[in-house]
Amino acid sequence: KAGVTQTPRYLIKTRGQQVTLSCSPISGHRSVSWYQQTPGQGLQFLFEYFSETQRNKGNFPGRFSGRQFSNSRSEMNVSTLELGDSALYLCASSPGTSNSYEQYFGPGTRLTVT
Amino acid sequence: GNSVTQMEGPVTLSEEAFLTINCTYTATGYPSLFWYVQYPGEGLQLLLKATKADDKGSNKGFEATYRKETTSFHLEKGSVQVSDSAVYFCALLMDSNYQLIWGAGTKLIIKP
Prior knowledge:
heterodimer, A: mainly beta, 11 strands
C-alpha cells in the first residue's frame, strides 16, 4: 500500500498570505488528522476529519481550517499567515474506527512564513 | 485533562547500551498508548502500541508494557545501535475522540 503523501513538501510564504496544504491518506483510510510541530510547542493537534466531517478540533484560531473530500483526501488552509505559523505540518491517516485507530503519518509540509 | 510526560532529553548512550525512555500519562478512562519515532528530516513512524493494561508492544527490538497501576509506558531496548538515533514520542489516544495527545519527545543520540 502506498503511504501517506503530503504536498507540497516545502513552502515559503509572506505574512498576511494564505496557504493550502494537501494530504492523501492510505487507501481505505477514512480519517485524516492534522498536527502542527514546532520546536517550542512540540506536536499539537489541529483537527480530524472522518468521512468528510470534522470530528475533532484542537485549540487553534479560526484562521486554520480544513476539509475532506469524498475520496478521503484532505486539505488544510491557513489564512492571514503570521510568523508564528512557521512549522512542520503533519498529516496522519487512520481507518478511524473504534477497533482500528492507529495513525500513520506523512513526511510533512515545512511552512516558512517571512 | 489528559496528558503525557516524557523524560527530557537528549539521552546520549554508547552503542550496545541498554535504553529506557520513561513515559507516564494522565487520563480519564482507558487510553491506548503509542510510541512514535522521528528520524532526522522525516515524518513520524509508529514504533509500537498497546491498547489495554498489561499489553506489551514490541517492534525492531523495542518494547513497552502498558502499566495501569503506575500509569506508565516506558520504552526499552536491550542493545541500541547508532541507527536508533532519533526523537521518540510517547502518545495516548482516547477512543472517545481519536485525538492523539503527545509527550514532548525525547531525543536519543547513540555514539559509536
